[in-house]
Amino acid sequence: MAKMHWILFLHILMGQGCLFTCRLYEYHFIAENKSWSEAQTYCREKYTDLAKVFDMTDMSRLRNSTQNQGEAWIGLNNNTGGNRTWHWSLPGVEYIQNDSSWNQNGRQETEPGPGNCGRKRDKLVDVSCDSTMWFICYDGMKKDNKTYLIEEYKNWTEAQSYCRYNYTDLASGLDQVDGEEIEALVKSKATPFSAWVGLFRDSWRWSDGSNSSFRYWDMQLFNDEQSNKTCAMTLLNRSGKWSSDECDKEKPFFCYDDKLILIKENKTWKEALDYCRESHRGLVSITNPYQQRWAEVRAKNASSPFVWLGLRYSCTLDLWFWVNDKLVCYEKWSREGKTEDCGRAVGMMRGGPYEWVSQRDNETYNFICSLE
Ligand SMILES: *[C@@H]1O[C@H](CO)[C@@H](O)[C@H](O)[C@H]1NC(C)=O
Ligand SMILES: *[C@@H]1O[C@H](CO)[C@@H](O)[C@H](O)[C@H]1NC(C)=O
Ligand SMILES: *[C@@H]1O[C@H](CO)[C@@H](O)[C@H](O)[C@H]1NC(C)=O
Ligand SMILES: *[C@@H]1O[C@H](CO)[C@@H](O)[C@H](O)[C@H]1NC(C)=O
Ligand SMILES: *[C@@H]1O[C@H](CO)[C@@H](O)[C@H](O)[C@H]1NC(C)=O
Ligand SMILES: *[C@@H]1O[C@H](CO)[C@@H](O)[C@H](O)[C@H]1NC(C)=O
Ligand SMILES: *[C@@H]1O[C@H](CO)[C@@H](O)[C@H](O)[C@H]1NC(C)=O
Ligand SMILES: *[C@@H]1O[C@H](CO)[C@@H](O)[C@H](O)[C@H]1NC(C)=O
Ligand SMILES: *[C@@H]1O[C@H](CO)[C@@H](O)[C@H](O)[C@H]1NC(C)=O
Ligand SMILES: *[C@@H]1O[C@H](CO)[C@@H](O)[C@H](O)[C@H]1NC(C)=O
Ligand SMILES: *[C@@H]1O[C@H](CO)[C@@H](O)[C@H](O)[C@H]1NC(C)=O
Ligand SMILES: *[C@@H]1O[C@H](CO)[C@@H](O)[C@H](O)[C@H]1NC(C)=O
């Protein structure tokens, strides 16, 4: 009974708690004209780095952080000497090379290549992005049968727009592209066919080294062959779409500021909590997969096998709760790690799979504070 009341109370206290999709960094628009590398230096001194953009939600937040309607630098550039790497179109799906999924000699006679976009037949092959063919969309909102073969001829960019508008994105990741559902689609046709999936390769990199695959080029203005325009900007009067320009041109710019910090000192859970409350805002809470991923990046640099999170077991209430009063709506427990006992708090593993393991709170580990 007490527990029920407490949970109800928490729900009321926090409103729609679990729907809250707070991001762990924020954007700052700097209304000073600087070259791209001056802007980078400025952001690294005053904030974390030039802005990176992870997905459409970030793009919307970035645009909302200013009234300005001009051009502004973001943290993407092409100073890689043309070294292209593969990405999946769907934000957050990491590209992992697996030679057995590819057949570089599998190009059909009619297919121009090698190119910078990936299509599937029985295997994957790179072909020119302006070839037109059927394509496979992915719908993240569906419970099963998440992939759809669209029997229309489009080039890669058009196919991506179609999928992003009508579904979620082009099919992305080997689990999906080599998975049963797509194999069934391929077999459902009497004759073999080629279809685009969400594979592309480019030579653009983020200033902070992250490998976010999200791109938002304005295809009417952007040309990936213009070799002296190697820095990216957002065009705020064109829905924030991106184009490129020569890096020594002076423009306003966006920085981003990290809101999580790893403290590389070993402390008990309580000491860590006090430390974060005094020096920052508190021990980190994780309420969605996005925040989990963001915390993983910090945990990777820890010197202890686990890092403390702000999640603790309450003996009296018999439940886990985040110390900032959020309910546990997202969970990433390791299989046998959820020991419910007095004096327990949660440590995230320092390495993959970055799962949560209940620990005695008198153990001493590194920990992650949130800044706001
Ligand atoms: C930046 O440059 C533009 C165009 O050269 C100019 O219109 C604008 O006033 C400048 N902004 C600042 C803050 O100096
Ligand atoms: C940006 O502002 C628009 C309009 O004010 C709003 O609808 C949208 O939700 C905002 N986006 C974010 C991510 O806050
Ligand atoms: C990116 O850099 C490579 C190598 O310098 C070049 O071939 C390519 O055209 C560049 N792309 C853009 C858009 O500048
Ligand atoms: C190209 O980039 C990949 C991945 O970032 C890296 O492993 C490789 O060494 C680079 N190649 C060259 C020639 O720079
Ligand atoms: C590569 O793909 C094959 C077949 O799809 C799979 O059996 C294998 O485990 C994969 N290898 C890696 C390293 O993921
Ligand atoms: C794809 O088609 C559109 C519309 O025909 C065109 O504007 C665009 O340049 C094409 N993209 C590529 C990569 O060929
Ligand atoms: C999902 O796919 C399976 C096998 O391809 C099929 O039997 C089933 O009817 C499909 N379900 C829906 C809702 O389309
Ligand atoms: C969405 O799908 C419809 C057909 O169902 C198509 O006519 C439309 O062009 C698609 N939207 C985009 C942006 O491609
Ligand atoms: C970038 O991708 C590589 C593997 O492709 C991964 O090991 C690395 O952690 C990623 N970097 C970031 C900052 O996410
Ligand atoms: C960049 O290339 C364009 C066209 O090729 C040329 O007009 C321009 O002068 C070049 N800019 C620089 C800084 O080299
Ligand atoms: C923290 O503890 C780990 C062992 O759990 C040790 O390897 C590491 O050096 C310690 N770090 C510091 C900063 O004392
Ligand atoms: C933590 O507390 C338990 C039980 O109170 C005790 O057995 C254990 O030795 C303590 N561990 C450390 C590292 O102090």
Automatic annotation (TrEMBL):
InterPro entries: C-type_lectin-like (IPR001304), C-type_lectin-like/link_sf (IPR016186), CTDL_fold (IPR016187). The keyword Signal applies. Pfam families: Lectin_C. It comes from the Eukaryota. Keywords: Signal. Residues 1-19 form the signal peptide. Residues 27-138, 143-256, 255-370 form the C-type lectin domain. SUPFAM superfamilies: C-type lectin-like. This is C-type lectin domain-containing protein.
